[in-house]
Amino acid sequence: MNITIIGTGYVGLVSGVCYAEIGNDVICVDKDPYKIDMLNKGKVPIYEPGLKELIATNRLAGRLAFTSNLSNAVRHSDIVIIAVGTPPLPNGEANLSYIDQAAIEIAKAMNGYKIITVKSTVPVGTNERLAKLIKSHTNMAFDSISLPEFLREGSAIQDTLYPDRVIIGAEYQNAADTMVQLHKPLTQNIVVTDIRSAEMIKYASNAFLATKISFINEIANICEKVGADVTKVAEGMGYDKRIGSSFLKAGIGYGGSCFPKDTSALIQIAGNVDYEFKLLRSVVEVNQDQRFNVIRKLETIFDGELNGTTIAVWGLSFKPNTDDVRESPALEIIQHLVDNGVRVKTYDPVAMESFQSLFGKEGVIWCEDAMEAAQDADALCLLTEWHEFAKVDLHELQKVLKQPILIDGRNVFNEEQVLGTGFIYYSVGRPNLNQGVKEKVPAL
Ligand code: UDX
């Protein structure tokens, strides 16, 4: 099939490449000529494992092209997929201006029947509104499709080529059938439904996953007080098929471009129809508070006096295998430390630059590697579970730190690794290890 994708962010770029990979002709469009230029030179504007290679092979095969010329791309395609950003407005609602603009430009470029598909996450009712907007700018026939996206950063290609399910929201059967054909090579689990339900499935899924994370984080906080181990609790819960083991990893809360935005947007969507989504409000509140789990531990260790200490921070991205720092817990944690007179030394394998562009370059010491960040620090906080941190030899680490204090915000290390190293080790929802001897420490 001939497909145009508007927007070369995570969703647009990865989807475009994957549609090409399964044999379609794909044109990716972005209004940023710099991005298109980069992509045409074989460079990839985002960090995503495997993406660069897949782009190269599909360009070589002549199935994938990049352009800033939206009109030409639309004219050459039967299916046009909108995958532009819907960033949150200050009130939590999704900003739909990019999507509206894309819809109008598509309408103006149309030279015949098209299937116009929305992959961007949009509030319920948006597809219907967009259809009206398109109709007001063209006489050509078209069908609207809602095609919500479920890919995760860091495993985006895997998620797109082998999805758990594909959701197709359609008004008419013919357009739905075409979209089913397009996705059949990817999965058997294709749910065809009405447009509003498809839009809702995306929000409900993300809200549910966010709920699982906040739930296990609260269980972790209780585990800390009663002396239980949340990793064992999660394991024990996860074997129950009705619960499932995924998204039960306790830590310092979820970040990223989706969960924070989509939970706020769903609260807002509910509010707009006079429904207060109390459960989801709590999920967001718990997540916000969980970031301070690390700070509370530092304050306990240093008797509330962080001013003048040097703290090393490992990990800045909201999760490993991405350079994305949007809503990363590291932003608020480091800001809090800096505001309280802490000298922060930090390192992340890939997210240093993106972090600096959001946080600024001032006030923090940026290090070349993990050990340099730890050198002479009074304590080390691990905020993102990058593989290279898990491989660190704790005996070596102990030698470079001024004090052997490790706060593991992602439960990367286990008791066997820590015992005998002399570390004062605090993790999330697990018994603390004090000077290598397992003993009860005061409740936090
Ligand atoms: C998420 C959804 O998984 C995906 O389906 C949707 O399309 C976009 O949002 P993503 O944000 O890329 O994907 O990352 P994900 O792997 O889901 O993790 C989100 C956040 O939750 C991360 O900050 C991660 O650290 C945190 N998390 C995840 C936990 O704290 N515990 C867990 O058990 C799982």
From TrEMBL:
Q: Looking at the record's lineage, which domain of life comes first?
A: Bacteria
Q: Which PANTHER family match?
A: UDP-GLUCOSE 6-DEHYDROGENASE TUAD
- What this protein is called in its record is UDP-glucose 6-dehydrogenase
| Recorded catalytic activity of this chain's protein | UDP-alpha-D-glucose + 2 NAD(+) + H2O = UDP-alpha-D-glucuronate + 2 NADH + 3 H(+)
- Class of this enzyme: oxidoreductase
Q: What is its EC number?
A: 1.1.1.22
Give the UniProt family note.
Answer: Belongs to the UDP-glucose/GDP-mannose dehydrogenase family.
Identify the residues that the record assigns to the UDP-glucose/GDP-mannose dehydrogenase C-terminal domain, covering every copy: 312-415
Q: Which UniProt keyword terms apply here?
A: NAD, Oxidoreductase
Keyword NAD applies = yes
Q: Which InterPro entries match?
A: UDP-Glc/GDP-Man, UDP-Glc/GDP-Man_DH_C, UDP-Glc/GDP-Man_DH_dimer, UDP-Glc/GDP-Man_DH_N, UDPglc_DH_bac
